[in-house]
Amino acid sequence: MTNIIDFDARKRKAGRVYCPPLDIYFPALVKITQTFPKDFDFAAVGITPRQQSVVHTFEDSKTLHPYMTEEEAVRCLADGDPFSLVMRHHKDLDSTSVYRASLYDFGIDPAMSFTVVSAQEGYFTLLTRPLTGGQPTPTITYAAEFADPESPVGMNEWLMSIGPDGTYYEEKSRAGDDTDLSLLLPHFD
Fold it and tell me: Which of 38, 83, 88, 144 has a Cα-to-Cα distance from 114 of 20 to 30 A?
């Protein structure tokens, strides 16, 4: 089951990535390191035993991560990270469910790497994706659909990826834009 985290818009810090077509900021990402006590019952919560766990998430609340020992704001992933992150804006909660179902259709089980957050700007999902041959470097990709009367379907998608060196790669739309970010963006293959 996916947890939905409600943010009070007055208390939440704006993220570092701005989406011009929707005039919104994405929530900030944090990297949380948890150090588990020696007597922690890993079997009871169904996770693999380990001394430390690192998660990338929206929230920076200790109550959600009781064994948190370190918290760090994240602008980009490290060059050696074996995964990428996809943060997607959704206009409503139903569209997050459709997105989650489409992941299953592509053979991706989001159960262990899918978070939904509610904010004033709408709903946001965060998905952790392993690197594939078509995507050799870890990136954080931000995505949002927006109304586009010039598109044949009336909608388009804005994408921005941030590489491990902090370089921003923006694609304003998939239709009618000759920018090719295919090597940087997460693929469902």
Answer: 38
Residue 48 forms part of a structural domain: yes
Q: Give the distance from CA 138 to its chain's centroid.
A: 12
Q: Express each pLDDT in 79-94 by its tens digit.
A: 888 889 999 999 999 9
114-119 and 83-90 strand pairing: unpaired
CA–CA distance, 157 with 172 (Å, rounded to integer): 7
Instruction: Tell me how far apart the alpha carbons of residues 67 and 152 are, in angstroms, rounded to a whole number.
Output: 50
Q: Residue 8: which residues within 8 A CB-CB, separation 6 or more?
A: none
Residue 41 belongs to some domain of the structure: yes
Taking the CB of residue 135, how many other CB atoms lie within 10 A of it?
Answer: 20
Q: Determine if residue 32 is left, alpha or beta; phi over 0 gives left, psi from -120 to 50 gives alpha, anything else beta.
A: beta
Boundaries of domain holding 46? 29-74
CA distances from 107 to 111, 122, 132 (A): 12, 27, 14
**DSSP assignment string, 19-46:** ETTTTEEEEPEEEEEEE--TT--HHHHT
The DSSP output letter for 13 is: P
Let me know how long the chain is.
Answer: 189
Q: Are 141 and 185 in contact (CB under 8 A)?
A: yes
Instruction: Give the chain's domain count.
Output: 1
> For the whole model, what pTM was predicted?
0.75
Tokens of 189: 């293959």
